[in-house]
From TrEMBL:
CDD domains: RRM2_CPEB1. Keywords: RNA-binding. One of its GO terms (biological process) is negative regulation of cytoplasmic translation. This is RRM domain-containing protein. GO terms for cellular component: cytoplasm; neuron projection; nucleus; synapse. It comes from Photinus pyralis. It holds the Pfam family RRM_7. InterPro entries: CPEB, Nucleotide-bd_a/b_plait_sf, RBD_domain_sf, RRM_dom. Residues 2-38 form the RRM domain. GO terms for molecular function: mRNA 3'-UTR binding; mRNA regulatory element binding translation repressor activity; ribosome binding; translation factor activity, RNA binding.
Length: 144
């Protein structure tokens, strides 16, 4: 209900990218358009197979993710680069909105090591390019 009301108050840039914008003003600023990125709750987790067990020792932390990247998209990018992805999850806040980080689990140690060794990758899509996505050994087990 609230999301619908917010989107109805937004302008939609259908000519270019279909992005949503909301006008905001304050005492310091007359009027500024800020981008609103709707998030579908089911987009936070992607599992290739429900029968496969997730191994924390083959999981990488991924930071500096763009807000438009969902778990399935993250899994595809990482699988294209390193192969063997069985799970991708986007970390969310208490309202289930993405916070810009996530986790990716591989089904083999070689893919995991290749991802950790890469340290940084560049993700290019039609809607955005994100250059500093940090890959690191998993910091915590699946928080969401």
């Amino acid at each position: 209900k609230n999301v619908r009301a917010l989107l109805q108050a937004c302008t939609n840039d259908t000519a270019n990218s279909g992005n949503w914008y909301f006008k905001i003003s304050s005492k310091r600023m007359k009027s500024k358009e800020v981008q609103v990125i709707p998030w579908i709750l089911n987009d936070s987790n992607f599992t290739k197979s429900t029968s496969q067990k997730l191994d924390p020792s083959k999981t990488v932390f991924v930071g500096a993710l763009h807000g438009m990247l969902n778990a399935e998209g993250l899994a595809k990018v990482m699988n294209d680069l390193f192969d063997g992805v069985i799970y991708a999850g986007i970390d969310t806040d208490k309202y289930k909105y993405p916070i810009g980080s996530g986790r990716v689990t591989f089904n083999n140690p070689r893919s995991y090591m290749r991802a950790v060794s890469a340290a940084f990758i560049e993700i290019k899509t039609d809607k955005f390019t994100k250059k500093v996505t940090k890959l690191d050994a998993n910091r915590t087990l699946y928080p969401n």
